[in-house]
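#struct-help
A.M.: can someone run this one for me? Single chain, 281 residues.
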Amino acid sequence: MTTLRKERALYLTASDVPVVLGVSPFCKDRNVVLRKKRKPSDEAAKPTLAQQIGHAVEPLLSMIMNEQYAIAGEQVFVVNEKIPLAATLDAVTKDNVILEYKSHGWVGEDYWPEDGTLPTYVLVQVLAQCLAADSRKAYVIEYSPRGLMQHEIVSEQYGDWNERIVEAAKEFDEKLLSGGWYPTEVDCPEEWAYLDADLVDRALEAAEYARYWKEQYDELRDRIVAQIGEARGGVDDAGRITKLVTVTRRIVSAGYLKDKYPSIYEECTVESVQRRLDLPK
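D.P.: on it. Structure tokens below:
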């Protein structure tokens, strides 16, 4: 599996696609980029509880279903360089029909619809597998507390999703190769040559929260101002005095000054230098 992990790090894989398209309930787009930009390591990340359940149950499910379909019981790693897109297939029949094994208990049942259909993130993952393997059909074998179920997916019936997958894969590949999202190497001592992806990821999430609450604050402030209108003040529900203060500001138009009086602009310009960490928006 070590070699397989390193191979998967070179491509956008089918399991990454739901994340990139924003339909995964578990992960964000940047998590995938950061993980693939990290220095390859032989150390596997600690699996989650849901993953531990899958790792325990799915091999048994695979053994039983592979025997039923009379196929070899080994995973297959495929790459479609044209897209580019890769996938690790649980199994594939001699007719190039993909078998994807899924198992979940109480840990993952909230993500699976009660009507027996597939979650969107699973559907998208399997459609990506079909594109990577150039396959037109797949079966998702689901084992859960509600029993053993088989879901048939015919790739050509999901043209819109397929187009989105191909477009996202190409765009993602460009970001991955360009290094525009996350630097694989930086000009610093060797022990710092690869940034801690988890630390950067936390910084990105913090920046997202900061932007979100800034937007919320601005929106609420504008609504309050609109309700107050021309009033000079009032009392809120907590009995606090609120005031609406009119503030007049005078600013100098730097653009106008630069165009009309460039010499004065240059004399009044003060240059400062600082280092800043830019987080992707």
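A.M.: thanks! Confidence is low (pLDDT under 50) at residues 179-189.
D.P.: also worth noting: The two ends are 34 Å apart (CA to CA).
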